[in-house]
Amino acid sequence: MGSDHLKMCIVGASGKLGRYMVRHALGKGYEVVGVCREKSVHKLDDVKDRITIVPGATNDRDVIQRAVAGCDAVLTVLVPWGMQHYSSGTAQAVLDFAPPGARLIFSCGWHITRDGKDVYSWKLKALVKILAALAPLIRVVDLKDQVEACNRIFASDTRWTVVRGSDLEEGESQGLPVWSRHVGDPILASNITRRVDYAMFMVEAITNDDLVQEAPAIVGCQMPSALAHA
Asked: pTM here?
């Protein structure tokens, strides 16, 4: 899978994280197909001549089937928007339609746990509780659906990686984030990653076989907790 002919699809390409992933992927010489909602296509104007854009809802199975055809890798931003099973619909379509053997990289938050061994701060637990309680009322976020999406990914026999991001901040790249298997591990204590570096980790994961069927939780490599455990 040489970078010179690697074809990848970025599902959610017009978002903040997605646009950074597009930039990293183009920098590596990858061929990029980007999926985003029609009303967000303009956000990709600066790269529209260098990528293929497939407009449509990311949980639209026909859109995903078209976009992932012939791709060596699919990078998916799992957003917990709305109450229409958006995350699980997107994840299922990617699992169903990505070519056999493709690298599938998904992004989500630290609240996702694979084996129940993650240890969360009271602040994160409180925030998740509040969001879960408010979600049915405001109908904007559906954290349960993101959990459902990840459970489907974990149960699949594809070459998946679920990258669990800490709190994100903007800023210059600090380099490739460090990762650990469980939230609560000391190396992750700083709980901050630059968004541009989260995107870098997603793109680098394509060629890192150590991350196949892993759910790494990441933190910025220059954050105090990462430096203390270097």
From this structure: 0.90
